[in-house]
Amino acid sequence: MNADPLFIEVRCNESTMRGANPHLPYSTEEIVREAVRSHDAGAAIIHWHGRDPDTGGPDNSVETYRAAHEGIRGATDLISKPTLGYISQTGVEDRVKHLRALADDPWLRFDAAAVDFGSLNIDTWDATTRRFTPGDGVYVNSRNDIEAVLRILDDIDTYLTTVVWDIGQIRTAKAFREMGLAQAPTFWELVFTGDSRPSGAGTNLLALQAMVAELPPGEPWQLMCYGGDVLPLAAAAIVLGGHVAIGLGDHDYARFGTPHNGELVGRVAALAETIGRPVATPAQARELLGMRPLQQPL
What we know:
The chain is α/β, with parallel strands linked by helices.
């Protein structure tokens, strides 16, 4: 088993609605609350989306991202990795405006940006009605847009994490390397999907092995499950030397009642302890990923 410390990423809110769980964060204060809980439970990385504090709808304003990021920075040393947009945003500049706005502040600049290397249908599958809802939800990432984002990240010197939803997107990312655009090595984010989002591979060991086999040897990777429970496959990822992302943004984890994000991170940390793999601090994760150290405020 790989003895490198395990990175745990909390995916605290994505676009999932709160439903019965009051712990899913919408507001800036709630995002910071979940960041602290997750940090204390063992997370090294946080991924988050700006949300309207009342409705939970997307809030893509620079001001919202600045406020939440300032709160995370002030309360933790987590590696902060906001979204580059979802189906609520179109156009490259709209997706990167918050990164650009903070890029010149050594303390407040974002640590990393996650780039999806392909498009996919993102509708929810309703097993009861046997219908997709809404039926026209497409997360569009054209190759021209990917190229433009990669050039911007290089220009503002932002660390790239490489998000792939299938083997073809891994191959696409490697092609961008041949173009001299994608950073290497990178932190690979392997996205599996649950029953409510049948757009990617289900959480089974053979699918995980197929994805890992396509990666460049020796580069770090993590497992996540959008629309489903990542825990059944998390143990395999930990044993294979991978890392794990978990959070209410991906799945409600209602089998545990109404957990907060820190409780979910704690379950992964406990699993790693049982297996015998240490959990990385944010500082260790920065060093192992080749990121710049966290700077002090100006």
